[in-house]
Amino acid sequence: MDRKRAAALLAENIKAIYGYAYGKLYDRTQADDLAGEIVYQVLSSANHLREEAAFWGFVWRVADNTFHMYLRRQKLRERISALPDEGSELALGVYVPSPATAYAEQEAADEELHLLRRELATLSRHRREVTVAYYVGQKSCATIARELGISVDMVKYHLAQARKQLKEGMNMTRKYGEKSYDPGVFRLDFWGDNNHYGHVFDRRLPGALMLAAYDAPMTEGELSIETGVPAVYLEDELDTLVAAGLMTKNGNRYRTNLIIVTDAYEKEFVKRTISEYDALAVELHEAVKTRISDVRRLDFSGKDDDDNRLLWMILNILLYRGYEMSCFKSPVSDPPALPLGGNGFLFGYDNNYENHHFGGITGRTGNQEGTAWFSAVNYRVAITCQKYDYFRFREKGQIMCDAILGRPSKEDPEVIAMLIRDHIIESRDGVLHPLFPVFTEDSIWQLEEMMIPMRDKIVDFMISISDKAETLLRQYVPHDLDTTLCGVADVAKIHHRLDVMAFVLEAMVAKGLLTVPDEPTNLAIFGVKR
Question: Rounded to two decimals, what is the model's pTM?
């Protein structure tokens, strides 16, 4: 905030500043002095304020600090005035503070203790350990050096730097960062073979740290101020993030080590491209609708379903196959080996998946024998009728394939009951059966052959969209962010090509070309048996 704007806001509310000062001192002359000092301090520091919305909180913090400095100066004046004049017969006097002064002295002492504790909380690990051991534990430098496994000279260095940092910090008005009152929301996206990262962000603090250190590296002390959390409580979280490869540490600075797809970026990209999906949706719907009768002649269960459900099934197969082919024509990089195990891509979001169009995706999941596989895509536009739950993924995959093959399952009966409850499969006399279409390998291939012209159009469209996304995303990603977990091009290819599937179907629903049934219906699940 510039000084001129701060002065204008203060001028509009100067009575409130004076009221604060008078309420503290009950003396008009002193209140005038204190109010003037507060205004001066606010104007001197206003340029450090990031957002105008935080101005009045900032003003009252400055007012409190200025009041306590005013009390300390008054205390010093009283002590000086209490000393005898030179040549006075009174050679020795005793300073006895008034009740008001005693209160002020105690309040100032409490404030200094609070400031000391605040600044101790911002010290880095070694510096804080050395300072506490020396001043609180009253240990010698030699003892501290032995216990921490560092040299005596290093102990003395940490003490000197800590004293300097504490002194500077106690004389400044700390401006806690946005994450101290609004930690934000961080969500992780994983694309790979074995996800070991699901537990890392069970708590909000790791996500707040990821968001805080995204635009630029930050020290532990800076992160403490930004999040409002003492450094001692950040250390384990930071160590965990570094060990997981989600943050890097260079010297004493930490940096988020993955791309964050921001809400601002996604909304800007949708605004630029949304009209393109409508044209493709109309063309694709008309082309597929003309082939419905040909599709019904293929060998698969579900061929007698109504046109709406068949259209959902065909379009879903065609769109997902287009995604696979787009990654063949314009490949995604090989997924890197991840520090916590497995291989995959990691990137994040600064919101609670508000811009997501899926409730989960599985491409091709087969059984152990390799005799069946299935695909299940939960489009959010159809989430009210299809709810394939990805919980206990391995067991469900095997059960789904058992149902495709029309046989009993040896898997957990509880998991079987979940799939029956969600109308994904049914059991008749102990034998499982699918409640979704099932193809032979020949019939699924024949279906794809029918749709090659439209599939190729989808492929080219997806590549075009991801190219545009890559160009825009580079403007939103810090230019010096260098991560191997998933680069800008791969984020664009994975995230936006899949979004084409959802946007096209959402456009069809919006135009009345497709409808979402009221009853449970598996619109985007199909199986294949070999």
Answer: 0.65
